[in-house]
Specification:
Structural class: alpha+beta
Distance between the termini: 40 Å
Largest sheet: 6 strands, antiparallel
Strand content: 25-35%
Number of strands: 8
Helix content: 25-40%
Oligomer: single chain
């Protein structure tokens, strides 16, 4: 079987199994369009869980640029070029229509999810150590399942 049928209200949506989950795509599209919105989520991907806060693509690239600059200690001139480069990448994730409203019709084109404060749990149940949470970028098509909310390290 290559197609899956999901019923949403009266509308029937047929999606191939080799495409991202349309519900998750829509969530990411909403976060990409909403100013400052973050949503706690846990993703099942390739034998591990990834848990963190979904952030907009433009926010991810701004924070990524700052981490890159901080970790490499580049000059001010180079830092400005790095910021500009990643700002341009991030701008591609902000989808608005001609009136300046969020363009959620473009959600089917969303291919990546961006998390901050991401933590990882291996399939054996052990946490993969990080220095706090990290920025994480993943392909939606690689997500097997998800739930809202983050995993706590407390027992």
């Amino acid at each position: 079987m290559s197609d899956q049928e999901d019923v949403v209200g009266e509308e029937s949506i047929t999606r191939s199994f080799n495409q991202p989950d349309f519900v998750l795509q829509n969530l990411v599209a909403i976060v990409n369009c909403a100013n400052g919105l973050e949503v706690g989520i846990t993703l099942q991907t390739g034998g591990m869980l990834v848990s963190g806060n979904v952030i907009a693509g433009d926010v991810y690239f701004r924070e990524y640029a700052e981490l890159l600059i901080k970790s490499t200690g580049v000059t001010d001139l180079t830092a400005d070029a790095v910021r500009e480069s990643y700002r341009n990448l991030g701008a591609k994730f902000v989808k608005v229509d001609a009136k300046g409203d969020a363009d959620l019709d473009s959600s089917e084109n969303v291919a990546y999810i961006h998390l901050k404060n991401a933590k990882f749990v291996h399939q054996s149940g052990g946490n993969i150590p990080t220095s706090g949470g990290v920025l994480w970028r993943g392909r939606l098509i690689e997500v097997v399942g998800f739930c809202l909310g983050t995993i706590s390290n407390k027992n």
